[in-house]
Amino acid sequence: MSNTTASGASNALNESSVSVSDLTKHVQSLTDRIDDLERKVAEKDRQIADLHADIEEKDTRIDELEARVEDVADKAAKAKAHRKALARKTQARDERIDELQAREFEKGAHLLADNVDADRIFVDGNKLERITKDDGNTYFRLPGEEDSLGRGGAVAYSTADLLPIQRLARYDDGMLASVTNRKPDELAGKAWRERDEAGRYSLWSKGSGEIRAYLDASDLAEWIRLKESGVSKKYSQELARRTMDAMHELSNGRLGKIKRQRSKDGLSYQETRLVLKADVELPGEVTNRDANDSPATDEGAGE
Which residues contact 189 (CB under 8 A, 6 or more apart)? Predict the structure, then answer.
């Protein structure tokens, strides 16, 4: 009986020792996990604090930028108001100048063309005449009016002295289309204007000897196709023929027409060429044949 009791007590003690050991290990494991979690929580807290600091810094930056935007917007509004005020003053000044110039024209004055915006001058008859005087300068006046002060010398030539094609060439494209009744006349004015466009691909070619410049029908047809949208090759050739006739007519015969033999793709054909001879005088143009065989043209705006 006593042996049995002693043996049971020993077994119970051994079982109790095992349980305490396991419990100790488990408690240590939980303690380690708690320490690890506390470290992670502390790290998260630091990250959260850093994020809060970043947010506060960004909020401060946003406030600064918003203040700058408001400042810039305020300055822009003031600048816009200033520009409008300047525009009003400039317009009022221009209107006063236009009014004074119109009154001077009505008194017979000749004013330098560079100082006059002819489109803004309203005078009796609503027309100004462009003239060139002995001093080489270009002036505006009312048609036929003489300058009582005689500034610039005598009138060398006026718009009325120009050839019809020269007068057409002085208009801008919009005005040219409105003053011409035929498409060939409009194209004639534009093509004449191209004489002053020097370059490798210019419409006009520089001549030599007796010929100052010339223009071939094929080149004119190609130029028309480039300038006029929707024009077929065949119609451009017809327009080129009619435009050459118009240029001959509007130049009062100063432009001559000749036929020249050409070959292409084994076929021979005759092509029309417009020629401006070296000895032909054009109103308002001064040609220095010794220095350069190309004409120097007075390029004024339309009347």
Answer: 165, 168, 169, 171, 176, 180, 250
Q: How many CB atoms lie within 10 A of CB 162?
A: 20
Q: Which DSSP letter does residue 301 get?
A: P
Which of 116-120, 256-260, 298-302 is predicted most confidently?
256-260
Q: What is the mean pLDDT of the chain?
A: 82
Distant-in-sequence, close-in-space partners of 119: CB < 8 Å, separation ≥ 6: none
User: Which amino acid is present at 273?
Assistant: R
Q: Which two tokens stand for residue 125?
A: 């008859």
Q: What percent of the chain has pLDDT over 70?
A: 84
This prediction's pTM: 0.51
216 token code pair: 């071939």
Q: How far is CA 209 from CA 171, 206, 213, in A?
A: 32, 10, 10
* SS3 category, 259: strand
Mean pLDDT throughout 143-163?
Answer: 78
Taking CB atoms within 8 Å and a gap of at least 24, the contacts of 168-171 are 168/192, 168/250, 169/193, 170/130, 170/299, 170/300, 170/301, 170/302, 170/303, 171/302
**To the nearest 10°, the Cα dihedral for 94, 100, 106, 109?**
-100
